[in-house]
């Protein structure tokens, strides 16, 4: 649920969290001991990706990736290109083979039948087009039948319908062994509040296109409108967005951690009739809830009073048709794509139907398919080398923490205790979700999607009165990604991330340490970033830092904020250093730890040879930059700058290495080079 990700602050490295072997693993034996060839180039990197006309000290990302950048267009059906996209496509093709096999033989098991019916229904476009708007008519009729606020609030709490707030469960930050319910501001029709409030020409154009989109969806759904209804819907969402919190504030755990009893919730937003509304949502027995953005919820409550019931119904009807347009006929699907993908992100072409079908199956029954994926594509040796490298990176962090001169001994001891308590998970869950009770009906694409979402919601609710299940995963095994969960103090690396060029058992050790080693270091680093550091070894939110150490850390972190605030990827659109601070700290700390681990490897195995004219240290940093070989369309990049806590790929390289002394030594970076920072201005996490 969105609320869980908001309050957890779970930080995922977008499509690039991969595994690497340990210091002593045979896969990392010194070059010459392994005769198998790496998948890329002579050591794990394709030289054609490089642009040697660029000085490393002027633009390291372009030095490493400039050749690739010039030669690689963004595919017509994508908003971005890069190694993350390549690896995701590989995993997608692997899952396709599983899903289509199950679809051909749906009677083999309950799971096979569910997958077969889900995917088969999705791929039967002729049947979907024949139905037109018919699948949404019963849902629209329920909206039309609403006669008072109580009925409206009840629909807000039903699966499939939009709502001005969202509700879910998560481990209680004050006692992470138990679950607690939480309420948060909701996602609106446009990506963020800036899309409603900004006055520049680009945002004005997006709002104009949004109005046309609303009218087009209403027409397809059989809802009469001369434009006045669309204006009322946009006015309502604009008013909601005005009360909503900016993205940077929403990642501050101290701001969003607002426990309230029913009386305080009623005082905050009495219009939502919380006792009956929470009972409808399944939280009737919960005495205390967390309200993430109280002023946004209060603002939405005031709008519930000041906005007519008929306008709320118009909004709800449009949102239902729009939110589920991808499950309807081609006319609906194409119109939604034209706005959300082309207008807002610059994507020119819809992805192949089968690819979107794989995404749908993964979302609906992901761990069921993932169990088979693991059997076919994840080996015990991968699990072993992944575990070894995590141990290796943890040891590097222990050394860095022990040597941090700005940290006092009492805080250092607790930091080491937290590091020792880290719970790493690799590959797949121990126990998979049982989907056998989820109803899947052949020929009912819309209903299948809503029932899958309702299954997930009810599964969450069933856990609420029980102790926290630490075995749950927030990603499927076939996801190319990773994350840190501060409430459970866990780092998680799904099976699908173990693919070149990020992890390659036949590549040079520098490749694996610089690529996946830095990613693993990044995830561990989230336990000590500006928000993760506020949780202790058990996952409880607690101030365990001495005032002097906390002050030193914060001053250092704010220097990094200042650096990133200065970067301007698109004219007039800068990186938000505060929004991206946690990820930037994770990147820098992860690079420091991965390099320390690599130097331990070199100390154990001897100096590394020069390959392709590059030293071992140079290859390490090139591998790091290659892991962020990616680019986005301008509209998608603008959206990222406003909503995403991750900095653009280029600045995850240039903005990080310029703070790291060994990079300067490796490439002879001198004063006068564009990326050069004087030593006193370089930020060090550790």
Question: What features would you describe in this structure?
Answer:
Helix content is 53%, strand content 7%. By secondary structure, the chain is of the alpha+beta class. It folds into 2 domains: 11-93 and 357-444 and 477-681, Collagenase (Catalytic Domain) (3-Layer(aba) Sandwich); 134-350, Neutral endopeptidase , domain2 (Neutral endopeptidase, domain 2), CATH 1.10.1380. It has a 4-stranded mixed β-sheet, covered by helices on one side. A 4-stranded mixed β-sheet has the order 3-4-6-5, sandwiched between helices. Helix 6 (137-144) runs antiparallel to helix 16 and helix 9 (201-221) packs antiparallel against helix 17. The radius of gyration is 25 Å and the shape is globular. The model is unreliable at 6-34 (pLDDT under 50).
Mean pLDDT: 93
What is the CATH fold-level name of the largest domain?
Collagenase (Catalytic Domain)
Characterize the overall form: globular
* CATH homologous superfamily heading of the largest domain: Collagenase (Catalytic Domain)
Classification by helices and strands: alpha+beta
CATH top level class name of the largest domain: Alpha Beta
Task: Give the low-pLDDT segments.
Answer: 6-34
Any idea what the radius of gyration is?
A: 25 Å
Terminal CA distance: 34 Å
The CATH architecture of the largest domain can be given as: 3-Layer(aba) Sandwich
Number of strands: 10
Query: What share of residues is helical?
Result: 40-55%
């Amino acid at each position: 649920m969105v609320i869980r990700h908001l309050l957890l602050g779970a930080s995922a490295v977008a499509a690039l969290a991969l595994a690497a072997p340990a210091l002593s693993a045979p896969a990392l034996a010194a070059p010459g001991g392994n005769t198998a060839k790496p998948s890329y180039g002579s050591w794990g990197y394709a030289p054609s990706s490089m642009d040697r006309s660029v000085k490393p000290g002027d633009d390291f990302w372009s030095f490493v990736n400039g050749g690739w950048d010039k030669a690689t267009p963004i595919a017509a059906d994508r908003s971005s290109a890069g190694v993350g996209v390549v690896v995701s496509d590989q995993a997608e093709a692997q899952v396709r083979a599983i899903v289509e096999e199950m679809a051909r033989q749906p009677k083999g098991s309950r799971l096979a039948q569910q997958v077969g019916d889900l995917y088969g229904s999705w791929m039967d476009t002729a049947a979907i087009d024949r139905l037109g708007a018919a699948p949404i008519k019963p849902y629209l009729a329920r909206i039309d039948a609403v006669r008072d606020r109580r009925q409206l609030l009840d629909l807000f709490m039903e699966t499939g319908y939009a709502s001005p707030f969202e509700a879910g469960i998560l481990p209680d930050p004050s006692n992470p062994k138990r679950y607690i319910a939480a309420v948060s501001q909701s996602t609106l029709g446009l990506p963020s509040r800036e899309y409603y409030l900004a006055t520049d020409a680009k945002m004005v154009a997006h709002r104009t296109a949004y109005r046309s989109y609303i009218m087009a969806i209403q027409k397809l759904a059989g809802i009469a409108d001369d434009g006045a209804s669309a204006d009322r819907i946009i006015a309502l969402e604009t008013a909601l967005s005005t009360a909503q919190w900016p993205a940077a504030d929403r990642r501050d755990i101290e701001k969003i951690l607002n426990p309230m009893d029913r009386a305080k919730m009623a005082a905050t937003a009495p219009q939502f009739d919380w006792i009956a509304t929470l009972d409808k949502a399944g939280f009737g027995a919960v005495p205390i809830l967390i309200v993430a953005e109280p002023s946004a919820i209060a603002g939405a409550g005031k709008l519930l009073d000041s906005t007519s019931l008929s306008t709320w119904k118009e909004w709800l009807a449009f949102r239902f048709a729009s939110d589920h347009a991808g499950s309807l006929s081609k006319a609906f699907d194409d119109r939604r794509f034209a706005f959300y993908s082309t207008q807002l992100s610059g994507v020119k072409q819809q992805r192949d139907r089968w690819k979107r079908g794989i995404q749908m199956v993964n979302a609906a029954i992901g761990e069921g398919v993932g169990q088979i994926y693991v059997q076919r594509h994840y080996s015990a040796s991968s699990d072993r080398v992944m575990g070894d490298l995590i141990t290796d990176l943890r040891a590097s962090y222990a050394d860095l923490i022990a040597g941090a001169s700005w940290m006092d001994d009492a805080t250092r001891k607790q930091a080491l205790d937290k590091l020792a308590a880290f719970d790493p998970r690799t590959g797949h869950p121990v126990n998979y979700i049982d989907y056998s009770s989820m109803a899947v009906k052949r020929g009912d694409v819309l209903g299948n999607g809503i029932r899958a979402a309702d299954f997930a919601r009810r599964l969450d609710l069933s856990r609420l009165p029980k102790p926290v299940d630490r075995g749950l995963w927030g990603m499927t095994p076939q996801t190319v990604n990773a994350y840190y969960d501060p409430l459970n103090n866990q780092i998680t690396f799904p099976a699908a991330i173990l693919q070149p060029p990020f992890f390659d058992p036949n590549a040079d050790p520098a490749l694996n340490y610089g690529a996946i080693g830095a990613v693993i270091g990044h995830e561990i680093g989230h336990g000590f970033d500006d928000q993760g550091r506020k949780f202790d070894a058990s996952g409880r939110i607690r101030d365990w830092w001495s005032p002097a150490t906390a002050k030193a850390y914060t001053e250092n972190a704010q220097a990094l904020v200042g650096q990133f605030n200065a970067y301007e990827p698109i004219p007039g659109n800068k990186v938000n250093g505060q929004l991206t601070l946690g990820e930037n700290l994770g990147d820098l700390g992860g690079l420091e730890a991965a390099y320390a681990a690599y130097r331990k490897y070199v100390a154990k195995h001897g100096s590394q040879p020069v390959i392709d004219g590059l030293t071992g240290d140079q290859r390490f940093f090139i591998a790091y930059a290659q892991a962020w070989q990616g680019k986005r369309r301008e509209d998608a990049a603008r959206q990222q700058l406003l909503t995403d806590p991750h900095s653009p790929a280029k600045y995850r390289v240039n903005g990080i290495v310029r703070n790291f002394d060994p990079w300067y030594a490796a490439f002879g970076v001198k004063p006068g080079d564009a990326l050069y920072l004087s030593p006193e201005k370089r930020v060090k996490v550790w």
